[in-house]
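Q: Can I see a sequence and its folded structure?
A: Here is a first one.
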Amino acid sequence: MSSSNGARPTCDVAIIGGGPAGSTLASLIRKYNPDLHVVILEKAKFPRDHVGESQLPGVGHICHEMGCWDKVEAAGFPIKIGASYTWGRNMDKWDFDFYPVERFVEEPRPAKFQGQRTATAFQVDREIYDDILLNHAQELGADVRQETAVTEVLHEGDRITGLKLHTGDVVTATHYIDATGAVGFLKRAMNVSSWEPAGLRNIAIWEYWRNAEWAIEISIGATRVQVRSLPYGWIWFIPLGPDRTSVGLICPADYYRDSGKSVEELYRQALSEQADISALMANATPEGKLQSCKDWSHLADRIAGENWFICGEACGFADPILAAGLSLAQSAAKDLACTILEIERGEIEAQWLRDRYNDRVRKNIGQHIRFAQYWYASNGCFNDLKEHCQSIANDAGLSLSPEDAWRWLSQGGFAEEDPGHAILGSFDLKSARSVIDLFTTEAPSDGFAIDKFNVFKLNLRDAQEDTFGFPKMGRIHRHKCYRDSEGRTMPLMGPNLMVVKTLKESSDLASIMQGLQRQILASGVDPARRNNLLNHCMQSLEAMISQGWVEASYDPNGPKLQRKADWHAIRLSQD
């Protein structure tokens, strides 16, 4: 392809930034189309320290697809099985696990990406992790140029014509990518503004420590991240290896300013006031590199232009309470890789692909921000920040009752990280609802709609059939969906599709269950996973009710659903 002035571009894809977003993007483009010339322009020299070490399980799937899972696993990072919190109505500790601890079996490391390891995550030393990813991109053929700073983005209107380097050279490309993280270098050059929710304007202060104790060790190398509330913020405690731990404080920027303390004074105060963390660090020594930064949640108004894209944290950032930074960055990079590969194929209209990337990634980040707002507004431990928390609640439209909170979250849309499955901000539906019950200042909610009703009818009066795109294996796969007048979509794939097919034939609970079971049997899914798939179908039905796609009512003569809290035992009963 040619640049706007008729000259041949010096590369196909120019990526500013070699962090996880940039290296993931480059690796996946090169994996699926080795003929494309991909250049990474990174101003730093790797390895280098970086904050943001805690992952969610989806990152492992992306690393596996990139072909670098074995390299990451060989680094020996602690396995993150979940997190331990003091948060919510009181100071009680509670655990949130990705995988049941009682089912986690001991196995030697390094291990393969299979079985229980597909449901866990890593706690990574970013100095090592980011270097692994960048070197992997280079091994796949990406032209990686470290210590190469971009000093100017050359553009004509919304079209970029080149990137001027510190050497005076100009790199031209068919596609330009901003993967510069919080710096947002290209984003700023193209005058893209961002939304910054007032209630999530925090600062982060952190230090790395040697020889801190792990709070808990599960099997070989597995543990939980520790999150501990304070009246003015919270502390993270993340083991990165046998003898290195990241310990940080998040607090509102206003509190830091009004305290009159230095960042070091505030950090030391926080560590001394949290007994659990103090005990773990009794024999630890700091590396002496205390750091701080602005930690504001934000979301770019747009992330795609005429011949450029924004990827990773430059797109947006959701408060680290959800540990979604790497997950959002690398999933956006995967999506963008598939988008660029499809634009190069020329089989799908390019503007549709740009719009789809913009909408999908921004929606995912927005839902994480929405969930983070709820976490902060619901923290009764912030005794000194009642007005601050109340302002978040007011801005978010929350009364903090379980039903109002659930309505607000679900109306924000279920994230499309895994279309067809009910997911709110990387949490499945049952986990999200349990968080609401833990946090609310009122009595826990009275359960799910599917527990209270037994007649379910599709509501498609305000909907039209449309298509949406889902990134998978280097392609954007187009699937049918319903889209309403407010722009909300209901993907017709996976459990969603099974539920819709069943509801088009039946409305009473007994027939619905029979219909779903027939579809699951016909799908050929492994017998051990059949009840898990039924579980996901029922969560999809609950999500459809929350968003108005399904109308629910109760017939006293019909059976009711009987299920255990873990959703893995579902049956009908006649009361």
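Q: Show me another, different protein.
A: A second, unrelated one:
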Amino acid sequence: MINILTPEVYNRIAAGEVVDRPYSVVKELVENAVDAGASEIAVEIEKGGKKRVRVTDNGCGIPKEDLKSAFLPHATSKLRSAEDLAHIATLGFRGEAIASVSSVSKMNITSETAEGGCYSLTSEGGKLGQVLPAGGAKGTVVTVDDLFFNTPARLKFLKSDAQEEGDVTGMVARFLLSQPKISFTYLVNGKVRYRSFGDGLKSALAVVYGADILENCYEIDAEKNGVKLTGFIGNRNFSKPNRSYQSLFVNGRYVVNQTVSAAAANAYRNYLMKRQYPFFVLFLDLSPELVDVNVHPNKTDVRFADNQVIYGAVYSVLSSVLDGNSRALEYVVPSPEPASPLIRSTMPSQSESKAEAPRTEPRGTGMSYREAKKELGFDVSPLKNGTVYPYRSETRAPFGVHAPASAPAPMPAPAPKEDYFEENRRLLLARDAERAEAQKLDPANLEFKGELFRTYLIYECGDEAYLVDQHAAHERLLYDRLRAKCAARVPASQPMLLPYIVSANGQEYAFLRDQLDNLRAIGFEIEEFGANNFKVSAVPLDLYGMDLNSFFSEALSSVETLRAIKLADLVKDRLATMACKAAVKGGEKLTDGEVKELLKEMDGDMGIKCPHGRPACVKIKKTELEKLFKRIV
């Protein structure tokens, strides 16, 4: 039997694609406000948008006779025929947003046009009330309360208030960037988070990322392969710990596109360290016929007519600017003010770019989109090798009598039989413990035979030889002592002479704020410090002197997946780094006393590994050597 679904059912199904979380509600409502011609837009949220989302604009408004139609599915003022889909110039066009949002919330629209009075209409779970007179100013106010109140299964899968707030903040930030001539006010739980004045992209960048962002960026204005490419890109010394600082707008619409992301990543490949990402705010403008925005209901995914042409255009422009070749001057917008030392140090030199030579050709290639394929072989360069950074050697820690390392952690209690994962984990731990015990030897049975290359210590025991990497072994011993020291007492803090400021974007701010108690528990003194900033006044005593920029960069690398920060793992990494710097290095000559002390501290454990997983000891049997010399076969 085939059932015809009622509007109540199919609107909820559509809501699952169009409106999955509060940030998508904000996105749809703000896009409608932009399409209405608003010059001022206010966005308010409470409890991450779960309790309330309100968007107010001064646009054209909705006439009284159209209010009920606005709540109907596939009702839109932006399309009239199928042919219009090939020339979409508005942010919204499907006519699904209001119907979808109203079906899973308590929604009210109050609107006034220039010609008529102000009227209001309320919907609860998709059930419309009556159009009533109301008071207000020209424009529209849309209020969405209790999102997913009638779909508890969806409500259960929403993230924490802070995480939802972070995603809404990230979406609002991109509206500030994509619509820099519109004045935005953004309030979170009654407090202003962003306020822009519609005075241009540079001002919007300063509001979202801070006033110093422009000192680290190039402004570009280029035309390549029939594609107009404008915006700001970070210089080659400027990187971020995650991709939340990357914003791409295609014909004014914020999108996420793998082709452009790959082109930018490859252009920066030679200048960024591992797990660092480029900063960019890029605007791609091209003919609507060459990009399909009607791919998914959320409209953040687009399909280009030819990905190779888009890749070639983006890669060619960005790599020219970063590499400082002669084309860079055609793409970089000259700054009206003297560049800062940081920018001057990364701008192309006159000898490289021939700055004094007159420009002999106009900006851009003048090449059409279809003709651009002929030039792709020159645009897409081979991938470059990453830069190798030398590791700085430190003075080694002396051998001697130290506090013993902590005893092995007790085995976890057997899990219930139905918890197969925990049961397997327990068995693996037990097997590893047995294997480690089998690899232990009595130090008295080990006879020191010398060293190789001032790095590997040679010991003999019966018909077996052991080669010990002195750096890896000492590093592990120091690491175990540091961890035992941290675990044995209440964390203590060391005040800093000057506080360290953690600057974050909206998503990072909400994400990090959730971790303040965990950071304080391990010894950080950290507090909120103005909009999107945190102040660190003290650090854990055991980690004093660590690179705070690296620590928080690694912590914030979790933002994209919104997984919990594993502070224990971050502390482990810092301790491992400290142990590595303090340990004896390969190539250093040890005294007889130091050799004996190292063996003593190893306590015969020939299976130990350095904190990074490298083996500290290798066993070679006598029979293996005899096979090498053909004594046996």
